[in-house]
Each structure stands twice: as structure tokens, then as C-alpha cells.
Amino acid sequence: TEIHLVKHKYLSQETLKYWQEHLNSLKFLRVHKSYIVNMSKIKKVIGNHVVLERNVRVPIGRAFKEDFMKSIIK
After folding, report:
1. Is 58 helix (H, G, I), strand (E, B) or coil?
2. What pTM was estimated for this model as a whole?
3. What are the tens digits of pLDDT across the range 24-49?
4. Domain count, the chain
5. DSSP 8-class letter at 22
6. Mean pLDDT, residues 8-22 taken together
7. Domain residues for 40?
8. Within 13 A of 23's CA, how many CA atoms are on the CB side?
9. Are 16 and 34 in contact (CB under 8 A)?
């Protein structure tokens, strides 16, 4: 798993499922089978993508879209 921070990138041997279970679910959300995002870093949603700081675009997977939309509407 690649973990991207503001200035660094780290590699972890843990799975995304592990991180999903251990990160605060109010702050971090799985939006795709390959991505968990920090909700506070989301700048906008365009179609099936979230745009994070530095204009990083992350796809929203079909299986995750409904939960994602419910989370951002709260």
C-alpha cells in the first residue's frame, strides 16, 4: 500500500482493508478498491472523481459511490 502525505510517500505491507479498519471512518473513506482518501483533503467532486489538494484526481468506484455520496452530504 502506498501512503501519500503532503511531502512524503511511504510503502506499507498492510492491505487497504487493514487501513480501512484502523483509520477513523469519520475522516477517511474508501472511494475505490484502490483508494482511501482523507475527507478533509477533498476540494471537489467532478463526475466519478474526487479532486484532492494539488489537483490530484482519484476515481470513485461504482461499488463505493453511494456510501461516498452519503458521507459528503452529512
Report:
1. strand
2. 0.89
3. 989 999 999 999 999 999 999 999 99
4. 1
5. H
6. 96
7. 2-73
8. 18
9. yes
